[in-house]
Amino acid sequence: MRIARAIRSAIAKNVQTIHDINQRYANPRIKMSMSVRIALLMLRIYLLVLMILLAYKFYTILTQ
Amino acid sequence: MRFVSKAYYNYHRIRKAIVLYLTIAGPGIIVMIADNDAGGITTYAATGVKYGYHLIWLMIVLIPVCYYVQEMTVRLGAVTKRGHAEAIFESFGPFWGWFSLLDLAILNWLTMVTEFIGVTASLQIFGVPPIAGVVAVWLLMGVMVLSGRYWTWEKVALFFCIFNLIYIPAAFLVHPDVSAIFRTGLIPHFPGGFNGQMFFFLMANIGTTIAPWMIFFQQSSVVDKGLDEKDIAWGQADTLIGSLFTSIVAIFIILVTGTVLADQDIEDAAKAAKALMPANPTVGTFMAIGLADAGFLGAICISLSSSWAFGEVFGWAHSLNYKIKQAPWFYASYITGLVSAGLVVLIPNAPLVLITLFVQVVAVTLLPAALVFLILLLNDKETMGEHRNTPLLNWINGGIVAVIIVISTLYGISTLFPSFFG
């Protein structure tokens, strides 16, 4: 019971810390245009796709 | 008489420059030599076994690539006095900040696993059981950070960097065919043509030479060391010298395995060291010592880059200049990363060599994301002032990003359609 409470308290504290960090950096200094943001997002998604392919390749080599 | 006074003046000028350089030197050399970590040594050894001398030209091409990427972190750290993670959060907001931090955390942890793989595999050659190797690394690293001073940590790390050069005498001892090196190694070409395996090795070699952790590490290291804008030129020199050392060591590893073990069924540095023992025990021993040192150096730097990054973002005290009581979360994250990565290596029947090679490929796949933010930060006129990127630097670094994306894409295609490239 005490352990569960301690874990809940630690999680709540970390969630609050993350919330505080998000607030602190809520106004980014560099203003990116919409096209730059979209390009960065597309790059991110693309890299994630490549990562999934890598994981698939890793799996096929492991299981062959 | 005028000659004597002029010689004396030049002697003092050069001596002063060397002393100043040695004072500033550290972040660039350490990050570059630590870049030849266990994964790197394994990749270079495997490259030599698979392709002989044929990819030596790639190591030479990677010298300026490595330098141009890393010197940006020197300017950014010296001007902003902030680590890379904090710079991304502040400049681009929490969405991109968390993405970058998560990338770094996962990749760094995976890379630390490969460092422990290297250390334990090399020490096993001398009969040291894996558990003892892992515990030895934990203890050594604990002792290094207990001093509570960045300078102490740096000097110890620089001492271990010396052992990374052990591959140079090893290469001389195997008597490589110099004419073959010049004939086959220096002209850019792709032996066997473009196929999935070639892409894999290209990516692994690029990924082991420039990795996201290096960007975060060197910038934080520059800040922790207290470098200023006036020190940028020296920091860049430090980085250039480090880049040269990185490639020189890589080339000499390729020379060792390419000369003695070409076309054999050897896929990693530890097996290479073991295979060398019967015919040439000195070279085998050098390879094993070098691998253990590389794993250790990589582990101490990578774990630090993660801890610095989290400390910057979460607002913990995050400097090696603090004792453990003054920066508990910083040291806790440092130790947690080390311990958890070391434990993975002790899992029975884990595919350790495969993990090592794949982690390098993962590193290069995620590199464009880190590089794009770095380039954007270096173009911020308001922050960087006269130290921002010139158009030429933007073209060079943008070109590096483009090449990496192309090679990653080609590898992705070869994964989905293995027969596409033959």
Which SSEs are present, and which pair or pack?
The complex is a heterodimer of chains A (64) and B (422).
Chain A: H1 2-24, H2 34-63
Chain B: H1 2-24, H2 27-35, H3 38-51, H4 56-80, H5 84-92, H6 94-125, H7 130-146, H8 150-163, H9 167-173, H10 178-185, H11 196-209, H12 212-225, H13 232-260, H14 269-279, H15 281-314, H16 328-345, H17 352-378, H18 381-384, H19 391-416
- Helix/strand order of chain B: HHHHHHHHHHHHHHHHHHH
In the predicted model, the low-confidence regions of chain A spanning at least 5 consecutive residues are none
Q: Report Rg of chain A.
A: 20 Å
Q: Would you tell me which CATH topology of chain B applies? A: Amino acid/polyamine transporter I
Describe the global form of chain B: globular
Just give the CATH class of chain B: Mainly Alpha
Ranges of chain B with pLDDT <50 over ≥5 residues?
A: none
Structural class based on helices, strands and sheet pairing of chain B: mainly alpha
The profile of the biggest β sheet of chain A is: none
Largest sheet of chain B: none
Range of strand content of chain A: under 5%
Total tally of structural domains of chain B: 1
pLDDT averaged over residues of chain A: 84
**Cα distance, first to last residue of chain B?**
73 Å
What does this entry look like structurally?
The complex is a heterodimer of chains A (64) and B (422). By secondary structure, chain A is mainly alpha-helical. Chain A has one domain (2-63). Chain A is 83% helix and 0% strand. Chain A has 2 helices and no strands. The longest helix of chain A is centred in the C-terminal third of the chain and has 30 residues, at 34-63. The model of chain A has no long low-confidence stretch (mean pLDDT 84). Chain B is globular. Chain B has helices at residues 2-24, 27-35, 38-51, 56-80, 84-92, 94-125, 130-146, 150-163, 167-173, 178-185, 196-209, 212-225, 232-260, 269-279, 281-314, 328-345, 352-378, 381-384, 391-416. Chain B has a single domain, classed as Amino acid/polyamine transporter I (Up-down Bundle), CATH 1.20.1740. Helix content of chain B is 79%, strand content 0%. Chain B contains 19 helices and no strands. Chain B is mostly helical and 422 residues long. The chains are: A mainly alpha (64), B mainly alpha (422). Chains A and B meet through helix 1 and helix 2 of A and helix 5, helix 6, helix 17 and helix 19 of B.
